[in-house]
Design a protein that fits this description.
alpha/beta; two-stranded parallel sheet; four-stranded mixed β-sheet; 304 residues; Phenylalanine Hydroxylase; 9% strand
Length: 304
Amino acid sequence: MGTATAGLTTTKAPFIEEAKANGELYIRQPYELYSEENQEAWRRLYDRILPRWRKYANHKFLEGIDKLALDPHNIPRLEDINRFLKPLSGFCAKAVSGYVPAYVFFDCLRQRAFPTTITIRDVSKLDYLPEPDIFHDVAGHVPMHTDRVFADVLVRFGEVARLAAQMACEIKNEEERIRRLESIIKAMARFFWFTIEFGLMRDNGDLKVYGSGLLSSYGEVAHCIESPEVQRFPFQLEWVVNQYFEIHHYQPLLFIVDSFDHLFSRVDELEHWIKEGRLNHVSPGEPNVNEQDLKSFLSAGLSN
């Protein structure tokens, strides 16, 4: 599949295109296909962001970097990552060929597997990320998975997704079922965005970053803490689930949790709100719920 010279550059990898054409979501990591340019991209990304991690990242993230023994010089092998990760939290990094429909993604988390992109951004465009890459997924997300409380938050979120799918499919009227489910998926996506991807946390009295979208961005990991242009507020579920977001620029609004236990309790609250019907009419706007995401929830609900 593919050629060694083609490399595994995001949007330019024959190996990935062939996997997608064959309908393969879960794949192997063909380490032999990484080019020297791919390895150089990893080195540059890691080297320039490390000082900012030390300054701005939550201490659990920094501990995770050490526990995973991430190599600053070479793209990690997922099998090596998993050797360190599984004993700590039961999680593993699971290679995928590209976009994972929402329910499938959340259900992977429930089963302690994290869908992981294996391509890496172009070495000439380190700040441009057309879609997730292995630096975002492995260097941004996976170190947090070494902390069992945080890992349990992800599992809990997957359980909430399963409940949402089951409840939606109990609604007899098809139009109403789809309308409610779209609202709930939108609310869950916003929750995930403002916590797992772009969350801030109090850490020994200081404001630190734990969200992976921030931790994998050289520019934004500093901007989110230092810039007076960013609004930072204590986490409020009613605000988070009704707040739209846009993905193509630095985030102007972020939310702060007190601890991972606090975050876990907010996922519990999210579940209660689904049961009470309080997410059936969240505000419109981004993110849009695409057909793949909607179908993934509907098919899961009907099969359970």
